[in-house]
Design goal:
Low-confidence stretches: none
Strand content: 15-25%
Radius of gyration: 23 Å
Number of helices: 15
Largest sheet: 15 strands, mixed
Helix content: 25-40%
Length: 417
């Protein structure tokens, strides 16, 4: 049922009472002031948490020119892991299933057909262990059950993260040798969903420190970086939705700095947006993609893999700083969208490699008017749609002899499972 017009107007006109006209443009000027005076480098408690890899600069690239450029890599591969999202059952089981796939551009149908499936299971029954070894199925695919550590809280967060990152990292390692030029992960370079556990209450930090399942995932990502570095094949992550707030939080601790943005993406959008006033109206310029230089990030969860803290969890072949997160931010004015490209420092420290990654992704965005084709393909291959999730739920209910422990939202929002 839609809102009655009188109530719609009653809500909408509340905005008239919030006098914020022109503030967005003022925030743009503030963002550029912060950019010029605080990020070269950005310090927190004596540590460089953000440091330019080279020169601090904003650049632009014409989209028509980009579309005509030669590809920097003959082939591109993408990797994604789709999930059902956590499913609680009335018998106490909480389950999430992750389904990882790798794409290739140009297409490789045999590679596309290969999948890695991980079912993560949580139960409070201390007498049961549902864990299994890897088992092959179909053609060149494998599956595994991970019985996650028993905890009295955060069960859904735990099954989701352990399924997602175990499937993604295992599939990437299994098919590393299929990638000859460039692999792009759909999402951050490292398992940030798990890295953030270190600062969440008491249950998740304890699990991060003591779980063999977590340790295995962390080691998988380290080994992934090493495998690609040994083969001199670059590896990166493409972040479509930037949720980080670590840079903004650091800026707010600086004396005299006003940081009104809700998250880092809002800040970078105002740094990179270009426009001009015409007849008193602001008009965004949309001919060019704009981007930042590359940064080394030690802010928030980015700090882990290049730190001495990681010595307690993983074994590394290279110097710790080679695993540090580096990134650049790309702004697409056509849809007012921001993307983040992350890569381990071992690849981007080399200016030639850094430039190849950057120009290839800029071209892909310009042509596709969105994420690179390899990412879109991987997302399509790995996605577990609502209809498939519904069928899986009904199958699980038969296998478990139990029903999904659904609430009224399942009825209200019309879920079919």
């Amino acid at each position: 049922m839609t809102l009655d017009p009188v109530h719609f107007d009653g809500i909408a006109t509340l905005a008239d009472e919030i006098e914020y006209e022109g503030e967005e443009r003022n925030h743009q000027e503030l963002a550029r002031n912060v950019w010029e005076n605080y990020l070269d480098p950005l310090y927190h408690e004596g540590t460089k948490v953000l440091e330019p890899l080279g020169t601090l600069e904003r650049r632009q690239a014409n989209m028509q020119d980009l579309a005509l450029e030669d590809d920097r890599f003959e082939t591109m591969h993408g990797l994604d892991s789709g999930t059902t999202n956590p499913l609680p059952f009335k018998n106490g089981l909480v389950v999430d299933v992750a389904h990882a796939a790798m794409s290739s551009s140009p297409s490789d149908l045999d590679l596309h057909d290969s999948r890695t499936v991980v079912k993560a299971v949580h139960t409070n029954d201390v007498e049961r262990d549902f864990g299994s070894e890897w088992k092959p199925y179909a053609k060149n695919s494998k599956r595994k059950i991970v019985h996650v550590p028993r905890r009295d809280d955060f069960e859904e967060d735990i099954v989701h993260a352990l399924a997602l990152y175990r499937a993604e990292s295992r599939h990437a390692l299994d098919h590393a040798d299929d990638v000859s030029d460039f692999l792009l992960l759909d999402g951050p370079m490292y398992p940030k969903g798990i890295l953030r556990w270190r600062d969440r209450g008491s249950v998740l930090p304890d699990l991060f420190e003591n779980s063999k399942a977590v340790e295995k995932i962390l080691q998988n990502y380290v080994r992934l970086v090493e495998r690609f570095a040994e083969r001199d094949v670059p590896l990166a992550g493409f972040v479509k939705n930037i949720s980080a707030k670590s840079i903004i939080r650091t800026l707010r601790k600086k004396d005299g700095v006003n940081a009104p943005w809700a998250h880092d993406a809002a800040f970078f959008s105002q740094v990179l947006e270009r426009g001009e006033y015409e007849n008193g109206e602001y008009e965004r310029l949309t001919d060019d993609l704009t981007l930042t230089n590359w940064f080394v990030s030690r802010a928030g969860s980015d700090s882990f893999f290049g730190s001495r803290e990681a010595d307690h969890h993983v074994e590394r072949e290279f110097a710790p700083e080679q695993y540090e997160v580096t990134f650049c931010v790309i702004y697409d004015p056509r849809r007012d969208l921001l993307y983040k490209v992350e890569a381990p420092r071992i690849f981007t420290e080399d200016e030639t490699c850094r430039e190849k990654i950057e120009r290839q992704i800029l071209k892909e965005i310009a042509v596709a008017n969105g994420p690179p084709v390899a990412i879109s393909k991987a997302d399509s291959l790995a996605k577990i749609g609502q209809q498939s999730t519904g069928s899986l739920v009904r199958s699980f209910e038969r296998s478990f002899d139990s029903e999904l422990d659904a609430n009224y939202n399942a009825v209200r929002w019309g879920r079919n499972y």
